[in-house]
Amino acid sequence: MDIFAKLAEKIIEEQETIIGPIALEQARKVTGLTINWQKREVSLEGNKTQILAKLVDQYKTLFGHASVEVCKEAVNQYRTQISSDLLPQVLR
User: Which positions ≥6 away from 63 have C-beta within 8 Å?
Assistant: First the structure.
């Protein structure tokens, strides 16, 4: 699985543990993000850095800065697998 897809999946999973099914509803609104949650398959089409930023922003719009912190924690374990300049500024 692509590292960006893995990051998006982890972000959605972490948000889902906190806000429930709303997390998936919000993720599906992000252009360029395709989700088959039953199979836990996530793919990104386009500028992957921007798509991740949009995903985080989608949660931030509804739930504020706390949701950004949840996103940062979700991707923390993968920081060594991706160059920091490829991460959206909001996740650094």
Answer: 19
